[in-house]
Amino acid sequence: MEARSPWSGLQGVVEAELHPPVGPVHQPEWIVAGSKSVTNRVFLMAAMADGSSVIGNALRSDDTYWCLDALRRLGVKADITGEDIRIGGTGGAWPNRKADLYAGAAGTVARFLPGLLAGDEGGLWRMEGSRSLRERPIAPLVTALSAMGAEIRYADEEGKLPIEIAGKRLRGGAVSLSGSVSSQFLSGVLVTSPYAAEETEIVVPDGIVQHAYVRITIELMERFEVPVTHGDRFDRFVVRPRRYRGQTLSIEADASTACYPLAFAALTGGYIRIANLDPRTRQPDIGFAELLRRMGCRVGLDGGAVELWGAPRLRGGFEISMKEMSDQAITLAAIAPFADAPITITGVAHIRTHECDRIAAICESLGKLGIRVDEREDGMTIHPGIPSAAVLPTYDDHRVAMSLALIGARVPGIRLLDPGCVSKTCPTFFDDMSRLGLQVRLHSV
Ligand SMILES: O=C(O)C1=C[C@@H](OP(=O)(O)O)[C@@H](O)[C@H](O)C1
Ligand SMILES: C=C(OP(=O)(O)O)C(=O)O
Question: Which ligand 2 atom sits closest to the C-alpha of 184?
Answer without folding.
Answer: 7
